[in-house]
Amino acid sequence: MTIFLSDFLLLILTFKFINGQFCYTNQCSVHATLTGDVQNWALLIQNYILKLASDTMHREKTQEYFDLAEYKEETKHGDKLLDEMKATLERYFEYKQHAANRIAKHARELHDSMYLAREKVYLQYLANNSTGQSSWRKSNGSLGLTQHKQLLHLDADAYKDADIPLRLPSNMTFHPHFKRNVSLKHSVVKISDEIPRNNVESIWTVEWTHGLESTFVQNREEDPGIRWQYFGSKVGLIRLYPGREWDQNFAGFYNDYDPRVRPWYIGTTSGPKDVIIIIDCSESMASNGKFAIARSVATVIINTLTRQDYVNVICAHESHWNDIGKWHIYKTKVLSCEQDKMVKATLAYKRDLKEKIAELKPGGTSEFETAFDTAFDLFQREPRTGCQSILVFITDGQDTDGEKVRCGAGQYTRSGYVPGPICKYNWTRYWTQVKQRQQFHPRARVFSYLVKDNGQIFPGKLACENDGHFTILNDGENLINKMFNYFDYLSKASLGTNGSWTSQYIDQWGLGIMLTYAIPVISNIDGRLIGVAGVDVTLDDIEHVISSKSWGSVYGFLVNRLDGDAIIHPGLKSTTIPIEDPISTHIKQLEMSNNKPEKFLTDILPSMLRGEKGSLRLVDAYRATMRRGFGVGTYYWSPIENTDYVFAYSLGESDEKFREVRQPKDLSTYEESFFNLLIEYNSSKGREVLPGKFEHMQVKINDPKYKDLRVSYLYSSIMLAPRVYCDPSEYFYNDDLAQKTINAHIYINQRGDPNENDKGCGEAKVMFHENTRAYVLISQPIERVWRARPSELTKDIIWTYVGMRTGVFRTYPAHRSVRDYDHTTRGWYKRAVSLQDRTTASMPYLDLSGGGKVITIAQVLFEGMPSISNETCQQKAKDGSSERKFPGGCPCSNGADCLSGYCYQSAAPGPEHKQLRCATERIIGVTGTDIRYDSFHSEIMKRMVASDDHRSCGSKYPCPGNQSKECSTRCYLVDHGGYLIVDPDFVDIPAIHENRYNQLTLGHKEGEVMADLIYTHQLFDRVETITFQGTCHVTKPSAKVTLKGIPANPEELDNKYKNKGPIPQFINEYGCIQDQVRYRVNPSRLKWSELFIGEVNGPCMSGQYYVTPLVKTNLILVVIENYYAEQSKNFYNFNCKIQRSIVDAGAFRIINGTCAHKTEKLSSLYGENKCPALREVEIECKYNQTSRPQFSLIFIFSILLCYKLLF
């Protein structure tokens, strides 16, 4: 590593800057001969792209259809929206709470009544058969009675097991709400692997919980959209409804599941707490696997903490001499990156602590003074809950660490070296120290765990004198049960019997990110915890409810008002297919940028967290739309009663008056539209209901242009995104594709009054959102235009389409799209919307519909402009410092005159309809065309021919100054983020190796040039952010060698979830905190007159570069003349790798990322008087007060021997 850094420093010292150029000493020279050519090439390429877009998409025709459409203008009121959504969400959450309360009530009644009835029979049996052997089995230490010795002796109806195929329900069928085969008639039990299946508690719990099935079924009848319902028992098993088979691991074994360590169980049974774990990291812990047990105990405790808790871990040991006089340095340390305080037990901090615990190694002395002082200091510092304090101490209790650990330096004598004294520890001073530090509220309870050894006195007395418990652990198996007293205390101490909503977490049963309403169930017989009843809701469901009332640029979000963390927000990752439990992101990070707007922090957020209802208009709102940026916005927010959540809406200025297209009145000129599942028109059901349609479409299979696909050149096809459906889950997992096709075909082609047959989701048995059909009809005529294009023009065009804001997607030729396709989430759509005044090109990517490696050219479609007078235009024009911009419908001379940035001649009616007019600020859709990458690349390259015919792109020639070397002219197209769109190397990369041509930057290929563009010419700005929802990889993604087994078309992709088999694939991804680096073009440098010229001679390459923008697109042309890069091919050229990495974009894992995950709240629940009431619990605590138990046995044996001799 030292050689590496020294080489790099030497390299830097040999660099010099000449006229802003990055060069080696005495090697800079300018040979700029392509200046005129490059500017000409840029113009030719831009004209090609604009003509390609015009000839293939015919945006002007589609725009005309929307300009001439009838619009209904509606004044929207944020207050009304807020009240409607508040009522809807409160009703939604209330249904789930009612269901969980019913389960909890019934569970208590079943448990207590069955036990009392059995106990009566049991006592009578004992009274009448005092000398006989009882068939009853009674649980020790808890309520439980059964006459069965094995679970398999139970009736098959009562005992259905998710782990035993022969005990599964027989009537399981696929259900879209659960994404798997389930039984709506039966529940199943899942027993943790650590629990003996045939003990009394397991059999007894299976017996009495069977009675809950009637409640589960009743809840589903009252709320058909309800998800998982369950009861998690304190013995470690769960009864789950609807019944299902459990998931399997990569080896084909059923995965383990213990409800007692799940967030919904722990958070409900324990209440908020502060936990400090002290691990004895001394040398004596290194033997017999003791330290591994200690790490396991600490990990179990951390796993069972929730976001309402605070935690930290201390590794206790100090420095010492060894037996030969060598000094070994050790220091007691706090493991969290926040070393001077406790941290909130969020996923980020828990993961950080567990990773550091796993890396600990034992060594050093058993001196704990610093550890205990640090622990009690942490207990008294903010942030903390202040509700209850728990100190967990894990040790082997040894008062010495062996021969190698000496507490003195030793000395040399005439006879040789004499080691220092062996360390011998006085436990009394630690007992006294802890007693003296227990002068704060709340007093800390100490739970001591002795691993494998017999030193019980120190940890035992420490626990028993501090209201805790002492436990001996001889192995690390079944720790949940062996640590029963710890968990039992937490459940007993909590007086709360009310339910609560959890923080978000990933559902281990496959439904994505969840919230759970959970209720502790307490027996009325002995007042002890029986278990926890729970009902799940998916964030997908809540998000669908919130978005159902959105329009225009309106978006909603959900926040946990206890800590301000966002639960649902457009800026968060998808909640449907998460990698693991989400790391929380504070709402400030999503609704603010560079600490602006200030009023969000000072006015809006505090009101939200106080649970107030309100609204506020901001002129500098940072809105989470596709065109992320500051603008006028109004926030409306309200709490959801009986929950800890608050929801809010953000409305843009243009959303106050919303215009929506209406279905055309004259439908005589509109042709029939077809749903994208073409093959289903040929199904028996499709032929019966829609006879002759399949033949009419003339579907081609395995057309030379579309291998393995079904297409129709006569028609375009309609794809409706899942959000278009009233129940997206029902749509997505409905495998009756024929009926789905029939329903969609009838709806999109239905004629008549839309007020009667298109009322939207508020009506019974309605499948689609209101007004969906209007978009299908208005876009239909473009099909004729696309169909009439000459074949020579379209030979390399794969698809042409228009994607509308409502989720309606029309594409030509007709073909099948993947089931979950939503064009508004795709990069080409977002890019076009964010650059609405330009024609945009995407990065090359692998087409989801089976079209291979393509590039998308896209342009936006604007909402039809309103009729507006010149006087009104002047009144509405916004005054700026030096210019006035006009709203949609006003006359203009170019895009700079308009708020939308786009000026065109519109067919829309108006007083100046023959003049150029400003487009509206609202986007109604995006039209695009996919072209084969190879064809696009070829067309670009053929336009870059040098005037001297020798230095064209791709040409090779002798290098200036050294004729023995071969140089070349290398050309790239990059977008406004610095990502490569055209690269000479992309042509030879197979389409399936998408990671080798998608998301690659200019810095990744030509680091020296990118560095100049960033730091010398300021063409790009470096943007760095921290994301708490990053995705890291276990191993570097590798290239695929074959398509065999990989879904190659939409049909195979749709069926993947069914055909993947029982053994899941290896997942190479995991969630992590990342530093995201990206580059953003400086808009002020995007002028035709800008031509950036420079020379570089660095560790990777040398040459002269020319860079110029294509101003009507999102592209920038980069040409490198005299390109020489042989040195970059050297595997050991680390300087080249460094040069490229420092200007590359990407997301890089922050090793200690939790340091960036700051806790926003710095107060305590105790200080806010919000701690839940606690029960004073006395814990039985025992330990052997003899330091050497074997001595006691010898003493007893001696007494007995003496007694025998004397008597």
TrEMBL record:
Membrane-related topology note: Single-pass type I membrane protein
PROSITE patterns: VWFA
A Gene Ontology molecular function term of the record: voltage-gated calcium channel activity
GO CC field: voltage-gated calcium channel complex
Keyword Nucleotidyltransferase part of the UniProt annotation: no
Span of domain VWFA: 274-406
Compartmental location: Membrane
Listed InterPro entries: Ca_channel_alpha-2/delta, Sensor-like_sf, VWA_N, VWF_A, vWFA_dom_sf
Annotated Gene3D superfamilies: PAS domain (3.30.450.20), von Willebrand factor, type A domain (3.40.50.410)
Recorded superkingdom: Eukaryota
Matching Pfam families: VWA_2, VWA_N
Keywords: Calcium, Calcium channel, Calcium transport, Glycoprotein, Ion channel, Ion transport, Membrane, Signal, Transmembrane, Transmembrane helix, Transport, Voltage-gated channel
Residues annotated as signal peptide: 1-20
Protein name per the record: VWFA domain-containing protein
Originating organism: Adineta ricciae
Taxonomic path: Eukaryota, Metazoa, Spiralia, Gnathifera, Rotifera
